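Problem 12. The chain below contains 121 residues. Write out its predicted structure in token notation.
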Amino acid sequence: QVQLVESGGGLVQPGGSLRLSCAASGSIRSIYAMGWYRQAPGHQRELVAVITSGGSTNYADFVKGRFTISRDNAKNTVYLQMNSLKPEDTAVYYCHADNLVTAIHRHLEVWGQGALVTVSS
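Solution.
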């Protein structure tokens, strides 16, 4: 069974930093894109950042210059380094894998369970 497991969420003061990690486990041949989405209370889930297996990245405007996404293809792991955090960054952050190919050539879209990030003094 393929799954994504996030870690690294928590409480941080405004201006602080956090690093989220997401590891994909199971019988995986490849993953085209891995990314992070977030959902704040009363809001829709929105894209934060995404990275392809080739290293191409895309960021939401509201995190450009503050967040950095990176990836270790050998470990099927994606990271999100979040700096200069603001209270409005408070949300549940979800890891996402797009076009994950399993050992038996199934193509899947997979979501993690979410990691809560709270930015507050």
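Discussion. The chain has no helices and eleven strands. Students who got a different answer should revisit the alignment rule from Section 12.3.
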